[in-house]
Write the structure tokens for this entry.
Amino acid sequence: MGQGNGGKEAVMEQEHASCPAETAISLLGSKWKLLILRELFKGMRRFGELSRNVPGISQKMLTQQLRQMEEDGLVNRKIYPEVPPRVEYSLTEIGSSLKPVLDAMHKWGAKYMMQTGKTEDFKAKRSVA
């Protein structure tokens, strides 16, 4: 009884840590990761291609996101011993398995936009708040 809320909070954190949906959200929770995945579903990409095809992302953020995705086992990074070095990114088998998840999100988003008539740019609207 003398634990206060600390013991209860620790138990709640453990419960959430084992939640598969929370795991998925923690892996994909960034808008950048979703946009990077969208590009990599099309095939192998070099850093410059990803930078050009993911509008608004800085080189620093792209590097951070790719490193995190590589650590999480979603992305492969292949470095060629050339001058200048050439680096290619592709999806791992686990990363590729996310395709139906993103397809379902796309389908749901399109349906939501049709049903509500909300087609404005949510990105711009949410950044103001």
Observations:
- The mean pLDDT is 84.
- Strands lie at 45-46, 75-80, 86-91.
